[in-house]
Amino acid sequence: MSTGKIVAGFLAPHPPHLVYGENPPQNEPRSRGGWEPLRWAYERARQSIEEMKPDVLLVHSPHWITQQGHHFLGVPRLSGRSVDPIFPNLFRYDFDLEVDVELAEACAAEGHELGLYTKMMRNPDFRVDYGTITTLHMVRPQWDIPVVGISSNNSPYYLTLDEGLEEMDRLGKATAKAIEKSGRRAVLLASNTLCHHHFHEEPAIPEDMSKEHPQNYEGYLWDVRIIEMLRAGRTRDVFDILPQFINEAFAEVKSGGFTWMFAAMGYPEIPGELHGYGTVIGTGNAVMEWDLEKSASI
Ligand SMILES: [Fe+2]
């Protein structure tokens, strides 16, 4: 078997509003659009993924929360209705997805080797969380590429931040090893918002974009600073200030997907391509791409 590789990583946040704004047939609520700049950003990401022709998409979601260890979807086909508990008025989505169980099992085994508690999720009726579904829909609405879904152990929330992120670093390294042995061409998706300060009331028309803007100016400034560093390829500097960013901007990268993805990619000091930035209920969201294959050929 040929050696597998991580083709690219994407920062691919999961506000369900983006699915709601798009009106795909799988989502029951209807909208008059909204959040176009972010949806146009995802159109660019979709095009990149189309060209990369990956065998598998791996996604780490902050909204599949498992207190005991890191879990992996472990059923070959999962279907059902995913509902956002905070925004059930916007997201009631009928999903039907194929899981790359072999690779998921390999990731779990490699994680165990590195001292993590890992577990396969074998419930055939499992309702996949809206974070996983939204990110996957936004990058590949055709649903024709198998996926590996990884839960959020949320260790950075109940261990110290450093300890928690160190676990995510190990999970990333385990993921990379498993992909290499698998022979797959893999794309990684870190399903994270940046600044997570948000409004507490929804406008009468949720998609009324005259009401949409950053909730917090300092948080916005933080997002711009982090994005500029990522666009410049200053990965090491970003990780140096990540704890401060997390604490001051209440950043959702705390849940670990961002660290997992960069650890798996080997923290490349390459410029990230910004596809777009926008707010959703005041939170900061960037769609960004790190194309490892392209950067290796330059
Ligand atoms: Fe979230």
How would you describe this structure to a colleague?
The protein has about 300 residues and is α/β, with parallel strands linked by helices. It is about 40% helix and about 25% strand. It has ten helices and ten strands. A hairpin with an 8-residue loop joins strand 4 and strand 5 (about 90-100). The mean pLDDT is about 95. Fe (ii) ion (FE2) binds near residues 62, 63, 131, 193 and 252.
Question: Could you give a quick summary of the protein structure above?
Answer:
Helices cover 39% and strands 23% of the residues. The chain is α/β, with parallel strands linked by helices. It has one domain: Protocatechuate 4,5-dioxygenase, Chain B.
Give the C-alpha Rg.
18 Å
Estimate the mean pLDDT confidence. 96
Category from helices, strands and their pairing? alpha/beta
Distance separating the two termini: 26 Å
| Sheet with the most strands, sense and barrel status | 6 strands, mixed
Residue fraction in strands: 15-25%
Number of domain units? 1
Low-confidence stretches: none
- Helical segment tally? 10
Provide the CATH superfamily: LigB-like
